[in-house]
Structure formats: structure tokens, C-alpha cells
């Protein structure tokens, strides 16, 4: 049997950050993970370059049933605090669109930094360890039965992440632990995930895989303007991934394929300057020909502009500016970057990440009902929440 001050389950982004912070407070910390290696999602993040944070992190960039919950942790360990760590370790990075910060070299720079910091404060990381049972002892401490024996501690941190990419170690253990302690778990679903299509739309768009266009995608009052990418299964690209997290299954998304122009006015002008031009020829000035060809079923593409009324122009423009598409579903946890829903934030202190009703039990990172937008927000949440918990465990 091993006694520690703190047991952390999950050697991912938030678990390692929490371990480092707790170790700096001279807490004896063990981190347990069933995966063979720590930080697998850090390694695969940002296409191997880890979009580790964003210069513009705000509470508005997160989805949660308690939208205020993230504010405290994000301000106490901000993107600038993480950048200071990066600079201390001389990790080269660069900024891309929308304030996204990426490693110049590789995601492993970030993982190595965390592992080195953990090593400095003697954090004990045990990978390949299965968790069999968790119980709270009479003195308030925790006992964790694992494939490698029983461990006991004063504090237990659940940093088991979400359900996406099961091959990278994802499991529902964190949600089960919450339920074991009567803590509410909001239903989960995949987020930042490509859409699949119903058969008729799949057929209609079958010639388009690989085409990417700058578009605005809207659901309810949420809109994102970025690229959409046509794939063999359906639609992906940053604008689609972003909106997927806000998409109520079964509803249509509205896609504006030409957000920069007023197509109705463009048609009207072209009718007077080049009346013999065909509709599809004009559209091909702005959109890839294959995409125009796929959309032609919806309007008189082969007609000359002089033959069409202004009402017709308006209806063609509407098809392009307000393309209503009802996704069949999503690609699911297999390819999702994150999990929506999770451990109820109202059951957890936003300052310490400690469960309100269970002293010594902490939740950090994605296992909580906090989901960031695409762009480095999810890792920043892992760093911020992990660091905060590390001050109190
Ligand atoms: P994380 O998933 O990192 O860690 C959880 C740990 O718990 C894992 O090591 C797992 O093995 C362990 N665990 C789970 N169940 C267990 C069990 N039963 N027993 C023991 N251990 C268990 N975000 C971002 O901001 N920028 C980006 O560039 C990307 N890119 C990206 C790409 C891809 C492909 C994915 C899947 C995700 C991203 N993300 C991202 C999201 C980001 O990686 C994610 O939100 C954080 O890693 C969450 O950190 P956590 O520590 O909460 O969980």
C-alpha cells in the first residue's frame, strides 16, 4: 500500500498541470493513467503542433450549463501565465489566425515541458495502471484500488478527460466517479466534430471531396466564418467543427457560401452589362465549378441572365446565401476533438475545483461540463483548471 497526499487520475493536460502545481506546494503526488504513455492527446493536438492556447481567451469561448464557471480559473492562470512557462522553457511558437498559438516544432515540446516540471517536484507518474475501485475512507481520505496495488491519499483529482478518441485512452471513468459520489453529470455528446449527411445530400455532394470554401455557418444565434471542407463522409473544416458544438441534433444549419458579396445585386448588375451570360458562368466567378455544378439542381443554371426575373435572382441568391442543410449526424467520438456535457459545474467550486459536497475530491479539465471552441481554448481550460486545483489539493 502506498500513501500519498494527492492521487491524480489521468496523466493528460490537466492532470499533469495539477500535479506540477501541487508538487510545487510540496505535496506528494502520484498520477495514475491506464494508457501506456502520458499526454497522448497533447501529442495529437493541433495536427502535431499543439494549439496550446489562444491570445483572446474569454468566458464567451466556452460552452457550459454554467457559463460563468470558467471565469475564475481562466483569470487566475491565464494564457499569459502559460506563455510565461513556454518562454521559460524556450519553446518556439507562432500565432495563426484568430489568436491561435502553435508550437513551431512539435507538440512533444509541451509534453516534455510538463513532464520535466513534474520531475523537478518529484511527481510519481504511473502509466499502464488500471483503476478498479475508489472509496472514501472514514478519515475523509481516498483509497484507490489499481492493477498495481492500493493507494491512499488525502485528496483525489479526477482528470480523466472526455470520451473522444477512445484509442487515445478516453473512458467514462470520471463520470462514473462523479455519479458514485452523487454528483450530477450532464449528458455527453461529441463536439468539434465533422458532420455526416443524409443519403440524398451525400449523393448530391459526392463530387466535392477536397473542396474548401470560405463560408459563414449559422445555428440559432451562433455564427462562424471560416473554411468549410467537403469530405467523403460529409462536411468538415473549422467552421463546421465550431458549429457542431452548438448544433441541436436534427436541426438544419444555414450556410452562406458567399459571405462577402450581395449575389442578388451582382446578378442585377451583370444582367445589364452581360445579359447573355449564363447563371452558372457568373457563379463560377465566385465558387469552385464543381460546387456550382452540385448546386445547379436548385436553380436554372443554364439560362442566360436576360431571361430571368429579379425574383428569380433573389431566389438563386437565397440558395447560395442561405443554404439550409440538415446534417445526418456527426462522425462521433471516433473523430471528435472534445466531449460536450460532463460533471456539473454547479457541484464544483470554480475557485478550487473541489466538489462542494465531497471534501478532498477535485475535478479538472474536460471531464467537467466545460467545452471550448476550436482554437486552443480546450487546452487552456485544462491548464487553468489543473493549475487552480493544484493550489488546494
Ligand atoms: P486528457 O484527455 O488530456 O487526459 C485524460 C487522461 O486520463 C488520459 O491520459 C487518459 O488516458 C486518462 N484516463 C481516461 N480514463 C482513464 C481510466 N479509466 N483510468 C486511468 N486513466 C484514464 N485542444 C486545444 O486546445 N488545442 C488543440 O490543438 C487540440 N487538438 C486536439 C486534437 C485532437 C485529435 C483531440 C482529440 C483533441 C484536441 N484538443 C485540442 C482537445 C484537448 O486535447 C483536450 O481538451 C485536453 O487534452 C483535455 O485535457 P484533460 O486533461 O482534461 O484530458
Features:
alpha+beta, FAD/NAD(P)-binding domain, 21 strands, 26% strand, seven-stranded mixed beta sheet, 393 residues, binds dihydroflavine-adenine dinucleotide, Elongation Factor Tu (Ef-tu), domain 3
Topology:
Elements (H helix, E strand, L loop, with lengths): L1 E8 L3 H12 L4 E4 L7 H5 L6 E4 L7 E2 L6 H7 L2 H10 L4 E3 L4 E4 L4 H13 L3 E3 L4 E6 L5 E5 L2 E10 L14 H8 L4 E7 L3 E3 L1 H6 L7 E8 L2 E9 L3 E3 L1 H7 L8 E4 L6 H11 L5 H5 L5 H7 L14 H12 L1 E3 L1 E4 L7 E6 L17 E3 L7 E2 L4 H16 L1
Parallel strand pairs: 1-2, 1-10, 2-7, 10-20
Antiparallel strand pairs: 3-6, 4-21, 5-6, 8-9, 9-10, 11-19, 12-15, 12-18, 13-14, 13-16, 14-15, 16-17
Helix pairs in contact: 1-5, 1-13, 3-13, 9-12
This protein binds dihydroflavine-adenine dinucleotide.
Please tell me about this protein's structure.
The chain is an alpha+beta fold and 393 residues long. The chain folds into two domains: 2-190 and 340-390, 3-Layer(bba) Sandwich (FAD/NAD(P)-binding domain), CATH 3.50.50; 194-331, Beta Barrel (Elongation Factor Tu (Ef-tu), domain 3), CATH 2.40.30.10. It is built from 13 helices and 21 strands. The protein has helices at 13-24, 40-44, 70-76, 79-88, 108-120, 173-180, 199-204, 238-244, 263-273, 279-283, 289-295, 310-321, 377-392; strands at residues 2-9, 29-32, 51-54, 62-63, 93-95, 100-103, 124-126, 131-136, 142-146, 149-158, 185-191, 195-197, 212-219, 222-230, 234-236, 253-256, 323-325, 327-330, 338-343, 361-363, 371-372. Strands 1, 2, 7, 8, 9, 10 and 20 form a seven-stranded mixed β-sheet that branches. It has a seven-stranded antiparallel β-sheet with strand order 17-16-13-14-15-12-18. It has a three-stranded antiparallel β-sheet with strand order 3-6-5. Helix 3 crosses helix 13 (377-392). The longest helix has 16 residues, at 377-392. It is elongated, with a radius of gyration of 25 Å. The mean pLDDT is 96. It binds dihydroflavine-adenine dinucleotide.
Amino acid at each position: 500500500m502506498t500513501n500519498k497526499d494527492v492521487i491524480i487520475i489521468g496523466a493528460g493536460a490537466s492532470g499533469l498541470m495539477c500535479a506540477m502545481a501541487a508538487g510545487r506546494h510540496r505535496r506528494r503526488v502520484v498520477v495514475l493513467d491506464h494508457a501506456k504513455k502520458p499526454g497522448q492527446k497533447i501529442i495529437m493536438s493541433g495536427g502535431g503542433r499543439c494549439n496550446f492556447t489562444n491570445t483572446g481567451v474569454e468566458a464567451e469561448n466556452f460552452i457550459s450549463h454554467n457559463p460563468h464557471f470558467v471565469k475564475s480559473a481562466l483569470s487566475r492562470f491565464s494564457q499569459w501565465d502559460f506563455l510565461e512557462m513556454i518562454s521559460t522553457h524556450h519553446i518556439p511558437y507562432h500565432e495563426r489566425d484568430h489568436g491561435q498559438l502553435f508550437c513551431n516544432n512539435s507538440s512533444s515540446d509541451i509534453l516534455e515541458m510538463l513532464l520535466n516540471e513534474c520531475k523537478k517536484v518529484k511527481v510519481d507518474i504511473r502509466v499502464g495502471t488500471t483503476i478498479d475501485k475508489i472509496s472514501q475512507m472514514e478519515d475523509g481520505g481516498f483509497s484507490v484500488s489499481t492493477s498495481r496495488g492500493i493507494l491512499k491519499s488525502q485528496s483525489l483529482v479526477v482528470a480523466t478527460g472526455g470520451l473522444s478518441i477512445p484509442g487515445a485512452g478516453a473512458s467514462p471513468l470520471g463520470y462514473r466517479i462523479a455519479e458514485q459520489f452523487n454528483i450530477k453529470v450532464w449528458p455527453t455528446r461529441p463536439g468539434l466534430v465533422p458532420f455526416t449527411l443524409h443519403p440524398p445530400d451525400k449523393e448530391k455532394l459526392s463530387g466535392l471531396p477536397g473542396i474548401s470554401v470560405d463560408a459563414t455557418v449559422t445555428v440559432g444565434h451562433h455564427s462562424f466564418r471560416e473554411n468549410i471542407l467537403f469530405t467523403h463522409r460529409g462536411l468538415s473544416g473549422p467552421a463546421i467543427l465550431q458549429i457542431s458544438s452548438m448544433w441541436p441534433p436534427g436541426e438544419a444549419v444555414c450556410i452562406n457560401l458567399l459571405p462577402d458579396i450581395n449575389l442578388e445585386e451582382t446578378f442585377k448588375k451583370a444582367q445589364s452589362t452581360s445579359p447573355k451570360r449564363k447563371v452558372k458562368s457568373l457563379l463560377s466567378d465566385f465558387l469552385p465549378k464543381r460546387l456550382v455544378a452540385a448546386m445547379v439542381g436548385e436553380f436554372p443554371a443554364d439560362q442566360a441572365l436576360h431571361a430571368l426575373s429579379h425574383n428569380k435572382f433573389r431566389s438563386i441568391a437565397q440558395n447560395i446565401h442561405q443554404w439550409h442543410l440538415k446534417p445526418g449526424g456527426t462522425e462521433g467520438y471516433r473523430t471528435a476533438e472534445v466531449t460536450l456535457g460532463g460533471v456539473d459545474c454547479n457541484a464544483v467550486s470554480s475557485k478550487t475545483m473541489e466538489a462542494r459536497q465531497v471534501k478532498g475530491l477535485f475535478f479538472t479539465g474536460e471531464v467537467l461540463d466545460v467545452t471550448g471552441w476550436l482554437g486552443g481554448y480546450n487546452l487552456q481550460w485544462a491548464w487553468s483548471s489543473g493549475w487552480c486545483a493544484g493550489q488546494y489539493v
